[in-house]
Amino acid sequence: MIRDEVLGLCELTNDLLYHKIPKDKVYFYIEESLKIGKSAARPYKGMNIIEVCKESGIEIEYLKESKKTYGVSFRAQVEMSQKQTKIWIYEGSLADLAKNSEYAGRKPISYQDALRIHLCHEFFHYLEYQQNRFVSEILPKITTLQVFGLKREGSINRCSEIAAHAFAKELLKLEELPNVYDYLYLINSGQMKKDQFLEMIQSYEKMLEKPAL
Questions:
Q1: Element (H, E) at 151
Q2: C-alpha dihedral over 195, 5, 155, 178, to 10 degrees?
Q3: Amino acid 70: pLDDT
Q4: Averaged over 89-104, what is the pLDDT?
Q5: Are 176 and 1 contacting, i.e. CB atoms less than 8 angstroms apart?
Q6: Which DSSP letter does residue 23 get?
Q7: pTM
Q8: How many other C-beta atoms lie within 10 A of the C-beta of residue 30?
Q9: Mean per-residue pLDDT over the chain, rounded
Q10: Does residue 211 register a pLDDT over 80?
């Protein structure tokens, strides 16, 4: 099992401003994002996420084919406005993810598991929108440029993604943050070597063990 903080770092390193985060603040952004996501899930524990979406007035539309942007296939998308929130579920991509989620002898997740994970993820973003409390805005901004006493600041947008993963894990009682399945998919589909994945995890473990963090 890979601990939450490490999988959180896997997500954080994808942020465009990751290299601007002070090294001694990396753990803070991960830990706080995880806390926010887990806390947001508690009122919904034991509830069916599909029913939660329906009761919240969220429309769910199932499509066979996945929308692609720059060669990347989407598994789910959400569109939010004051009038309506709608989640598109791309069944083919979800089925492909489920089929390619086996790893080191453990069984792959089911299509329904993949569906619930993605609905939880998008529902968390819906909560952010409804409450106007985005994780990336709640947490402190970082300085991206400082010249002659003038500062430019930016938000770490991937913190919202870490929190959404934590929300799904808490609500669905998963063993790991669900972004682990993105990496298992890459490995099983031949887009990433197993050794590369293990080396990345090991290096992130070491990063988070440094006294400065």
A1: strand 150-154
A2: 70
A3: 37
A4: 93
A5: yes
A6: G
A7: 0.91
A8: 25
A9: 91
A10: no
Q: Which amino acid is at 94?
A: L
Sign of the CA dihedral with 147 first, then 33, 31, and 112 last: negative
Residue 26: closest CA among 124, 138, 200, 142: 142
Distances (CA, A) of 204 to 9, 114, 154, 165: 7, 26, 24, 18
Say how far apart CA 190 and CA 199 lie, in whole Å. Answer: 17
Which tens digit of pLDDT belongs to each residue from 118-153? Answer: 999 999 999 999 999 999 999 999 988 777 777 788
DSSP string, 32-81: HHHHHHHHHHGGGTTS-HHHHHHHTTEEEEEESSPPEETTEEPSEEEEE-
The predicted model gives 159-179 an average pLDDT of 97
Q: What six digits make up the tokens of 46?
A: 């034991």
Q: Looking at per-residue confidence, does 34 or 145 come out higher?
A: 34
Closest CA to 43 of 112, 113, 127, 117: 127
Give the sign of the dihedral formed by CA 117, CA 121, CA 122, CA 123: positive
Instruction: At 187, list the tokens.
Output: 């490995």
